[in-house]
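Subject: Sanity check before I submit

Could someone independently write out the structure tokens for this chain? I want to compare against mine line by line before I put it in a report. The sequence has 60 residues.
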Amino acid sequence: MSGKKDNPKNTASPSYLALGISLGVVLGVALKNIGLWLAIGIAIGAGMDSSKSKKDEEEE
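---
Independent answer below. Compare away.
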């Protein structure tokens, strides 16, 4: 039986890209400039995901 249950590091790993997109959409709707804020949210989320994956590689 293999799966994600065998690796405890994957149990609570948040997706920062999804959080960035959500934040970008919320700010875009609130400030009436969804294109700009969606792009900013994607960039921030991708950067946070990238830095998290680099930290995870260093810890192993």
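---
OP: Matches mine. For the report I'm noting this point. The mean pLDDT is 82.
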